[in-house]
Amino acid sequence: MAAKIKVLDDMFLDMLKDVYFAEKQILKTLPKMAKAANSAELKAAFEKHRDETEGQVDRIENVFEILGAPARGKTCDAILGIIEEGKAVMEDFGDSPALDAGLLATAQAVEHYEMARYGTLIAWAKQLGQQDAAKLLMQTLEEEEKTDKDLTSLANSSVNASAAATSKAA
């Protein structure tokens, strides 16, 4: 018996499972990052994004529903690696004035990964005629882009400056 040839629909569903897993891992990690952060603004940014991520998980579940597929995640090694980097930052720099800069860098790595994934999923959804799915995914991409912009602003306005103020090079 010949193996079933996989098509774009299969790839779309596979990547949707990947991003679903990633979002659920991020939901577990954001409170830890918020707790570790020294900056009140950074704590607030992590808490706000945690609330947004809950809505993003709901949207992905809606996309699964549109596709008639069960909402199931698939292990995403990329996000697990980024989360491990974040844990290492918290362990290695826990008492350091550079901690917040490292947490912020980790958060932006997560955002950039998500933006790449959502951009791809939107393009594929449109190709597959899944306009409703594309709209839901676009809402999430817009939130991820705004979060990334907010984190960049936070980095430029206070977090990196605080870390640099205590640096040997300063």
General form: elongated
Number of helices: 5
The unreliable regions are none
| % residues in beta strands | under 5%
Distance between the termini: 68 Å
Overall structural class, as computed from helix and strand content, comes to mainly alpha
In N-to-C order, the SSE pattern is HHHHH
Provide structural commentary.
The protein is mostly helical and 170 residues long. It is 81% helix and 0% strand. Helix 2 (40-67) runs antiparallel to helix 5 (131-165). The longest helix is centred in the last third of the chain and has 35 residues, at 131-165. The termini are far apart. The mean pLDDT is 92.
Keywords:
170 residues; mainly alpha; 5 helices
Task: Put the structure in a nutshell.
The chain has helices at residues 8-36, 40-67, 77-92, 99-127, 131-165. The protein has 170 residues and is an all-alpha fold.
Layout of strands and helices, then pairs:
Layout: H1 8-36, H2 40-67, H3 77-92, H4 99-127, H5 131-165
